[in-house]
Structures are given as C-alpha cells and as structure tokens.
Specification:
about 425 residues; TIM Barrel; Elongation Factor Tu (Ef-tu), domain 3; 11 helices; about 25% strand; disordered N terminus
Length: about 425
C-alpha cells in the first residue's frame, strides 16, 4: 500500500461550460478540465472563449481548485501555427496545466507556456512505464494512462517512474470502443473526425449485413437473439474501488463528461467526492453514494480493464443481460430513472426559491441534492409562481417559483424527480 499517496488525491471533474464548472466546484471537485474553442476533443461542448477562460480560472482559483485545458486533438499543419498564441493566452489566463497528446503540441507548450504544467493525455496511449519515463524527460508532469492498463500495470508504472510524476486515470463515464480514442469509423461513415473532437459515435449504432449477390436484403448483425449493438461499450464506474486505485499509485481520479450537462457533473462529482473522502480515511462509501451513480443517466456499468480483460469477468454478472464483458449488445441507449427539474437559488424564512429546468408536479417523488450529503426526500405542500399565485405544476423552464419548506440547503442545490 502506498500510504504516502493515499494521504492526497485529486478529484478531477469535467467542465463543458461555466454552469458545469460551477457545479463541479460546488459539489467538491479539486480541479476541472475544460477546453477553449479550438484544440479540444469535445467540439460538441460549449467550451470557453478567451474571455470566459479568464473568468473560469478566476472562479476556480478563488475556490481553491485548479484548471486544466485540453489540447488533445491531432492538429494539422496550419493549426500548429495558431497554437503558440492559443497556449500563451491560456497561460496568461492562469490555467494550471495543458493536457496534450501530440508531441509537437507538447514541445510548443514547453516553449510558449513554460509556466504551465504538461499532462500527457490518454490519447497518447501510455500503457508502460518506459513511455511515461520518456515523457517525463520532455517535462511532462502527469500521465493520463490509457484505459487498457490494469491495476497491476499501474503499480508497475508507479514503481518505475520518477516519484514526482503523477498518474491520472478515468474512473467514471463513457468509454470509447477503440484504443484510447484512436478511431476512424466516424471519419469514414460521416466525415466527422473523432481525433479532432467531432465523433458521431457510430459504435453506438445497430448494424446490418448485405450479401453482394442479394442486394437490398439486409441481415441483422447480432451476438444472439438478445441484441445487435456489437461495438457498444459499457460505461466506466469505479466508485466502489477508489481505494484500489489509490493503493496502486493513482493520484488524480477523472470523471468523463465535458459534453454532458451541469446536472451530470454535479451528481458524479458529489458521489465521487464522498467516495474519495471515505477511501482516504480507509472506509467504504455509504450505500447512498453507491446509489447516486444509478440516478445519473448512464449505460450499464463495468470496471473496464482495471481487474483484467473485460471478457474475463469485469463486466455485468446479470445472466439476463446480453454481455461480453465491457460490451453491451441489447441497446445503446441510456438508463434514466430521474430528471433534473430545478435549481435552488436561496432558502430563507421557510421559503425555498427555485429556478425551474423541467416539468414537475407537487405530487411527484422529489429529492433535493445538496453538496456532500445524502439526498433529501422532499414532499412540499404548496408551490407558487413568480406572481405569487398558487400552483401544483411547474410547466416551463427557467421560471422563478417558490415552495414553502423549512429545509435549508445551499444555493445551487438541485431538485430532481423520479420518472421510473
């Protein structure tokens, strides 16, 4: 057990926009990772302009959190000429580190932003200690390991790299079916290059075969009668196993999801904050923390490659599921049991002030999620619209309403309803 490492660890949350960044900070992130308008692998996220980046860094630093900027695309010739100004601007904004995969980008980051740390992205594909050691010689401070590395592999890497080089791994969220995101299927089928942040996720599609002498006759591709999503990977979930990761020498625990909502960021950050705090104290997370990850919109979970190849048992043990370890053949859709319906603006004098996000009724099964505490069952009796009229249904998003309640929670707490 690496006790020195267990005394410190970082929870790293995604921030696709300012709302997500605030959610990450409110619910306990030690650091956030985000992107500017170029060079990031999530072009579908809102991302940050230069001016927004300055505000984001200022906000995070005021809360004691770090900011890392993703520059993990594979830039073309002309784009490399634009990178020096981009990275100098990020350094001027106060960004703490750049996450990069391309050797040329790493070299330019060293030259034009010497005040920023360099983290080698998971797109670098690091699966052995020798590669990590060579990256260290290039002044890379942290390596984000490829998801194919097992716990035993992490231990060996940790033992053979410089002590001050950090290890980061993904612990939760969607996983690419390809090795470290190096996929060309989207480019071939849609013209959207996954390695430039534009993936159309064709691995989530159902497929048919057509035999060349039988044009127009399509035969469904399936593992058996249960399903045909042959490339569809499960989601990662390591919330019950953070102690194993810390023991292996992992420093930073990363949540996937820069293209997802602020609500997703809040829930995952809250759950993993509580689980990590327990792991650092040598305790197991309480039941409510484990239940939280099931209340997030997700695909069926697995533990990836940490405990060996997914086909060797780290996938689901449910005999009714059509599974091949890390793959899920029945559907590419999400499991969703709760909807985010409102944010809490303030609580005072027995009144809860809310901003609505989705339709809900007083009769719905409601819960309030506040930072670092068990969800609160919520059964209010009276609700009022912005004009003071009594209502039993909130129908429109972004309206101000009030609910009579003696419950007091911090601003930015969340209200959700059960839908299944």
């Amino acid at each position: 057990m690496m006790l020195s490492n267990k005394k410190r660890a970082e929870l790293l949350s995604p921030a696709g926009d300012m709302e997500s960044l605030i959610s990450a900070l409110d619910f306990g992130a030690d650091a956030v990772y985000l992107a500017g308008k170029t060079f990031g692998m999530r072009s579908g996220a809102k991302n940050f302009t230069d001016k927004e980046l300055v505000a984001a860094v200022r906000t995070a630093h005021k809360r004691g959190a770090k900011v890392y900027i993703t520059c993990n695309t594979v830039p073309l010739n002309g784009e490399t000429d634009e990178f020096p100004e981009f990275i100098k601007s990020a350094q001027d904004a106060g960004v703490d580190a750049v996450i990069a995969a391309d050797i040329g980008v790493i070299a330019m980051a060293k030259e034009f932003a010497p005040g920023m740390e360099i983290h080698a992205s998971t797109q670098t594909g690091v699966v052995n200690w020798r590669t990590a050691a060579e990256l260290y010689k290039m002044e890379v401070k942290r390596v984000v390991l490829a998801r194919e590395v097992s716990l035993e592999g992490i231990k060996e890497i940790r033992a053979k790299i410089p002590e001050d080089m950090e290890i980061e791994v993904f612990v939760h969220g969607a996983m690419c079916v390809s090795f470290s995101g190096r996929c060309l299927i989207s480019e071939y089928l849609t013209g959207r290059n996954a390695n430039r942040g534009e993936c159309a996720q064709p691995c989530r599609w159902g497929y048919y075969l057509m035999e060349e002498t039988r044009p127009g006759q399509f035969f469904k591709v399936f593992e058996d009668d249960g399903g045909s999503y042959i490339l569809n990977s499960r989601d990662m979930c390591m919330i019950e196993h953070l102690d194993d990761l810390l023991d292996a020498g992992v420093y930073s625990l990363k949540i996937e999801g820069r293209a997802k909502s602020a609500y997703y960021t809040a829930l995952t950050t809250n759950a993993y904050r509580s689980a990590l705090d327990c792991a650092l104290k040598g305790e197991k997370p309480p039941k409510w923390v484990l239940e939280e990850v099931d209340k997030i919109s997700h695909r069926p979970y697995c533990t990836g490659f940490f405990y060996g190849h997914p086909n060797e048992g780290s996938g689901s043990q449910d005999p009714n599921e059509v599974t091949n370890g890390g793959q899920y053949f029945e559907s590419s859709g999400y499991i969703r049991e709760y909807d985010f319906v409102a944010t809490v603006d303030n609580c005072e004098n027995g009144v809860m002030y809310l901003t609505t996000r989705n339709f809900f009724k007083l009769s719905d099964e409601l819960e309030i999620l506040a930072p670092e505490r068990e969800p609160i069952k919520f059964a209010p009796k009276k609700m009022f619209d912005e004009d003071g009229g009594e209502i039993d249904t909130a129908r429109h998003a972004m309206r101000k309403i009030t609910i009579l309640s003696d419950i007091v929670v911090p601003p930015h707490s969340l209200l959700r309803k059960r839908i299944n």
